[in-house]
Amino acid sequence: MTELISVFSQNPWLFIALSFVFAAVIGSFLNVVIHRMPVMMKREWQQECNHYLSEYKKQVFDSNKQQLEAPIDAFPIKYNLVVPGSACPKCKTNIKAIHNLPMLGWLMLRGKCAACSNPISARYPIVEFITAGLVAFLAWHFGPTLEFALTALLTFCLIALTGIDLDEMLLPDQITLPLLWLGLIINLGGTFATTSDALIGAAAGYLSLWCVFWLFKLLTGKDGMGYGDFKLLAVFGAWFGWQVLPLVILLSSLVGAVVGIALIVFKKLNHGNPIPFGPYIAAAGWIAMIWGESITNWYLSTL
Predict the structure, then answer these.
(1) Residue 2: what pLDDT?
(2) What pairs with residue 94 in β-bridges?
(3) Contact between residue 234 and residue 245 where contact means Cβ atoms under 8 Å apart
(4) Distance between CA 199 and CA 183 in Å, rounded?
(5) Could you tell me the sign of the dihedral formed by the alpha carbons of 243, 177, 147, 197, in that order?
(6) By the 8 A CB rule, do 120 and 113 touch?
(7) Residue 136's Cα: distance from chain center in Å?
(8) In angstroms, what CA-CA distances link 142 with 134, 147, 223?
(9) Mean pLDDT score of the chain, rounded to an integer?
(10) CA-to-CA distance for 230 and 202, rounded, in angstroms?
(11) Fewer CB atoms inside 10 A, N or C side of the chain?
(12) Which parts of the sequence belong to the Prepilin type IV endopeptidase peptidase domain (predicted)?
């Protein structure tokens, strides 16, 4: 491992190129996560509801001494991040391995299914390219270091969260909570922040938006944001300390407001309709991760 790191240190462009290719492959998997994780969660919720309903019916029927039919499995087909294999949603034809190559597969197919010519969303190569580009930048910025590996992992998770939130307005605990704990663990050694700054950051990140949420609800009677947003901001506090939180909140609020107003102006969004806030927190946190100190120092120098 030491020899490999030495080779990468001496040949930074090789490291950047390999990081780009590796991240593109991960980006292809992230497309699967973005599409399938919400479906898996909904199925799990429905199965839990069916289970509780079955238990309730059993109690009622038992009390009346009636026969209860055996519950039917609503989802007999196994479905997770691995199975079933990727297939065209229209004709159900399995996608060949060569057509699953990141970005290249979509270009080879010219954005259409090889079997039925059903259009394939351009989002797939876009996610792969963005993932590859961001990680290649991290490879250039950090070099072959532990910081690179950790920030690349964080980037993968942020891209998945962004895609899911845009589609479903949902930030799964299955991603945010492990990230939160990982941030606290890696900072036991002060990787990005001191242990105390990370602990305060996690608590302050969650509680700041939690307070805004309840203040807004008390004033309007409506939910202003989801609990997933609290947890995502807490992730950045746990990873990089409480000092980054003001910048993350400011940037995410500013970009969210600009995008929201633009959508309303161009009639892509009706006034009062909710928009996902997670993508703006993710983008602001990523920017703060790289340039947070420089932005803060620049701002303070202008005062």
Answers:
(1) 82
(2) 87
(3) no
(4) 9
(5) positive
(6) yes
(7) 19
(8) 12, 7, 40
(9) 88
(10) 10
(11) C
(12) 153-261
Provide CB contacts within 8 A for 200, sequence distance 6+.
237, 241, 242
The answer to which of 52-61, 96-105, 152-161, 216-225 has the lowest mean pLDDT is: 52-61
Q: CB of 168 within 8 A of CB of 38?
A: yes
Q: Do 282 and 175 touch, CB atoms closer than 8 A?
A: no
Res 63: pLDDT: 58
Q: CA dist 255 to 28, 149, 168, 191, Å?
A: 27, 28, 20, 29
pLDDT cut 90: percent of the chain above it:
53
Mean pLDDT of 133-144: 97
Total length of the chain: 303
| The residue type at 46 | Q
For residue 247, what is the enclosing H or E element?
A: helix 245-265
Give me 289's structure tokens. Answer: 């991760």
Output the CA torsion sign for 190, 196, 199, 205: negative
The pair of three-digit structure tokens given for residue 21, joined into one six-digit string = 């290719």
pLDDT tens digit sequence for 37-89:
999 988 888 888 877 777 766 766 665 555 555 455 556 577 888 888 888 87
pLDDT at residue 81 in the model: 85
Judge contact between 39 and 79, C-beta under 8 A.
Answer: yes
Tokens describing residue 301: 């120098």
Q: What are phi and psi of 267, to 5 degrees?
A: 60, 30
